[in-house]
Amino acid sequence: MAAGTSGGRGAGRGFTLLWASQAFSEFAYSTSLIVLPLLVLTLTGSPSQAGVIGFVDAAAMLLAGLPAGVVADRYDRRRVMLWCEGAMAAVFGGLVLLFWAGPVSLAPLVLLALVNGAATAVVLAAGEAMIPGLVPEERLSNAVAMNSARTYAGQLAGTSAGGFLLAAKQALPFAVGFLAHLGGLVLLLFLKPQRPSPAPAPDPDPGSSEPGGGRREFLEGVRWIARHPFLRLGLLCATAVNFFFGLVYFVVIASARTGGVGSGPIGVLAALLGVGGLLGALAAPLLQRVLTGARPVLTVLWLSALLTVGIATLPGTYTPGVLLGLIAFAAPTSNAYFTTAQLRLTPDSHRGRVISVAAICSGAGGAVAPLAGGLLLDHAGRLTGLLGCAAALGVLALGAALSPALRNAPALAPAPRPAEEPAELPV
Questions:
Q1: What pLDDT does residue 410 have?
Q2: Distance CA 97, CA 165 (A)
Q3: Which residues of the chain have pLDDT under 50?
Q4: Which residue, 96, 190, 350, 403, has most beta carbons within 10 Å?
């Protein structure tokens, strides 16, 4: 087992602490993700400028992903997460003080987006790299699925709460975010330190040479992924889907706001996506036994294309949220399949950097999406823009279905049935 692994109840307790800490953190992140663009829209009235604040957050996460994996493979992962949670708590708390002192300009909001994106990238890389050291190998797929449930639960709670908190008082979403990051930090204090395993000799990646240098270590992660056709194609699909999904999401939220929908109902609309994702994550262990091979990936691609047409054309304030939720329902099964394959193929000494490379590739699409969504809404309009997204997703789905890499995708052992799972894991 990896360094830091313990059996029995210790493994369940460690994963539960990590899961709960990151749930608090992702709640705060999801709150800011909906509140910041709405605040900028209120200040400027421009969807393009609201898209810029989302781009800053996503770009910071993307750029921080370059060193995040190397840091997670060099240092105690728990300590790295503690520093990041402390930084995010500090910036949320500072913004609360600014709001209480008087009107807030755009600059502090941009600063929050920068710190939020960068620190979240490091937390995600370190936290995901810790999972194989906290659960037995046969439980890895279930643990990944539970992480998807955590993400969507945080999104559900954060987006719905964010809209209503913002409607009550502008400082409230950030005060709640400060408390959430503080809670995540406290939970991490009860988790045992976990240092990465030393790199084996010879290095498992024949393309790498002597250790040293963050750039060289990061490139080892790139080379590791490049050796596996399925991982290469999977990351290409993830990048494209993240871009179009983020673009559609932004267009839906921004067009609702400019159309006169209030912050509270917008929070509910966004939360519907979280409902679908949470239900999908809970259903993922069963769906993995039904959707074998690369079928989860293809299902997400085709659903994204077809339901985006519905988002563009069907009436109703909350209809886009319901349809986005249906796409999100299928996403955790695809994510669990792909992430489990990635973790099983990668040695512990390289997991942080491989996770980092994967996050950068898939996050690149998400980073550009808010900026592209604002420009698309300004210049093409809602209907034309969304139908264009649906067409592009359809082409991507067809190409993936015809790809030999997906047709010959690795088969993973089915997850254990619920009756076989220890009661202490997960929460």
A1: 62
A2: 16
A3: 1-11, 200-213, 414-427
A4: 350
Question: In angstroms, how far apart are the furthest CA atoms of the chain?
Answer: 62
Do the beta carbons of residue 388 and residue 248 sit within 8 Å?
A: no
Q: Which long-range contacts (CB under 8 A, 24 or more apart) does 238-241 make?
A: 238/338, 238/358, 238/361, 238/362, 238/365, 239/361, 239/362, 239/364, 239/365, 240/365, 240/392, 240/393, 240/396, 241/300, 241/301, 241/304, 241/365, 241/393, 241/396
Residue (of 80, 84, 82, 352) closest to 196 by Cα position: 352
What are the pLDDT digits (tens) for 162-202?
A: 777 887 788 888 999 999 999 999 999 998 887 766 554 44
Contact assessment for residue 235 and residue 362, using Cβ atoms and an 8 Å cutoff? yes
Q: Which two tokens stand for residue 263?
A: 């912050």
What pLDDT does 182 receive? 93
Paired tokens of 373: 């969504």
Given the structure tokens 């937390």, which residue do they identify?
123
Q: How many CB atoms lie within 10 A of CB 378?
A: 14
Cα separation of 198 and 169, whole Å?
49
User: 426 preceded by cis ω (within 30°)?
Assistant: yes
d(CA 218, CA 417): 37
Indicate whether this model's pTM tops 0.85: no
Secondary structure of the chain in HEC code, one letter for each residue: CCCCCCCHHHHHHHHHHHHHHHHHHHHHHHHHHHHHHHHHHHHHCCHHHHHHHHHHHHHHHHHHHHHHHHHHHHCCHHHHHHHHHHHHHHHHHHHHHHHHHCCCCHHHHHHHHHHHHHHHHHHHHHHHHHHHHCCCHHHHHHHHHHHHHHHHHHHHHHHHHHHHHHHHCCCHHHHHHHHHHHHHHHHHCCCCCCCCCCCCCCCCCCCCCCCCCHHHHHHHHHHHHHCCHHHHHHHHHHHHHHHHHHHHHHHHHHHHHHCCCCHHHHHHHHHHHHHHHHHHHHHHHHHHHHCCCCHHHHHHHHHHHHHHHHHHHCCCCCHHHHHHHHHHHHHHHHHHHHHHHHHHHCCHHHHHHHHHHHHHHHHHHHHHHHHHHHHHHHHCCHHHHHHHHHHHHHHHHHHHHCCHHHHCCCCCCCCCCHHHCCCCCCC
Return the number of other C-beta atoms located less than 10 Å from residue 148's C-beta: 23
- Per-residue pLDDT, 69: 75
For the record, the structure tokens of 28 come out as: 């705060």
